[in-house]
Specification:
A 10-stranded mixed beta sheet has the order 3-1-10-9-2-8-4-5-6-7, with helices on both faces. The chain is globular. A hairpin with a 5-residue loop joins strand 6 (about 160-165) and strand 7 (about 170-175). Helix 6 packs parallel to helix 8. By secondary structure, the chain is of the alpha/beta class. The chain is built from 9 helices and 10 strands. Helices cover about 25% and strands about 15% of the residues.
Length: about 325
């Protein structure tokens, strides 16, 4: 039976949980491969309210994410170790409290991080195919492979993708790749292509969507799913999250197509809460890149950048089969 848990725990536990799972896989090479595939989906400035399963707001629609949640357990205490992008990601990648190696804010030097061993490196050494998609924010894109990722399909803000694979999952020299798709859709399609390519090998995919982080660039066809009066920043954020949800649907469909559903753990996590800018001003989408990103933290107090629940408690869930390891993510 497949189970899904909406996890609320200090996310540094993800690293030891995964490595314990790998270590306990059968060493019998004649047996059916026991190493689970791992997918970490990481959203950017995604507010607590903006998952349909929470039932906090009525305008959000995330059917594919809600479907993951319905299969298992909903936990309530999942905190990021920092309310900002860079330290949150540094902690996730290393499994260590990021202040221990000097990454305390978005402006911190990354010398300490560069000396750490990431979860991707450890999984690569364990025989996994590793791939990174979307936002990195932990140094230059060309350095991503040194942190354990064989395949890279990275993109930040409105810059071109920097990739060593194509949208179809084929190898190419590392360099700029003009986007042929909306960046969220491109990450989803490239990740699905990697699943297709490596269906017979264990893989670790880190899919870090730059959504709903500004700039609020959802294509019109996504925004059109949310008619009616509302702040335009809210409509744009909902459109970006709809693209994320569609991507989750594409990934789960691809896993099902190859019979990988029962062998794959999917973690869905947010880096920190939404930046409300206190008053949630509906400024022009392109005129205030540092403003409210349209996402909501209701009913929590605070926002991105604050050591309050609105900055630290966020969307987090996992789809998993390996129930005998459930104690590793005890919700307390």
């Amino acid at each position: 039976m497949t189970s899904t848990a909406i996890l609320r725990f200090p996310l540094l536990k993800l690293f030891p949980f995964v490595m314990t799972l790998i270590a306990s896989s059968t060493p019998d090479v004649s047996a059916v491969p026991a190493k689970p595939n791992l997918i970490v989906i990481y959203t950017d400035d995604h507010g607590h309210a903006d998952l349909g399963l929470h039932g906090v707001v009525q305008d959000i629609r995330t059917p594919h994410l809600d479907a993951l949640a319905r299969g298992g357990v909903v936990a309530k205490h999942g905190y990021s170790t920092a309310p900002q992008c860079v330290p949150s990601r540094a902690g996730l990648m290393t499994g260590r409290f990021q202040a221990r190696f000097g990454v305390e804010s978005n402006q911190s030097a990354l010398d300490g991080f560069n000396k750490e061993t990431t979860i991707a490196t450890r999984l690569q050494r364990a025989g996994y195919v590793t791939a990174q998609f979307g936002k990195w924010h932990l140094g230059p894109t060309e350095e991503i492979p040194r942190h354990g990722f064989t395949h890279v399909f990275s993109q930040n803000a409105q810059r071109p993708f920097s990739a060593n694979i194509t949208l179809e999952g084929k190898d190419r020299p590392m360099g700029d790749l003009p986007p042929a798709e909306y960046h969220v859709d491109g990450c989803s399609k490239a990740a699905a292509a990697v699943i297709e390519r490596y269906a017979n090998k264990p893989f670790f995919l880190y899919i870090a969507y730059r959504a709903p982080h500004t700039p609020l660039d959802a294509p019109q066809h996504y925004k059109d799913r949310f008619p009616g009066p509302m702040p335009e920043r809210r409509r744009a954020a909902l459109g970006m999250l709809a693209a994320v949800d569609d991507g989750v649907g594409l990934l789960t469909d691809t896993l099902k197509k190859h019979g990988l559903t029962e062998r794959t753990l999917i973690f869905f996590i947010g880096d920190n809460g939404a930046p409300l800018k206190i008053h949630k001003v509906d400024s022009p989408l392109q005129g205030d890149p540092g403003g409210w990103d349209g996402s909501l933290n209701d009913p929590l107090n605070g926002e991105k950048g604050m050591l309050a629940e609105g900055g630290l408690l966020h969307a987090c869930q996992t789809k998993q089969r390996y129930q005998h390891h459930r104690e590793a993510c005890d919700t307390g």
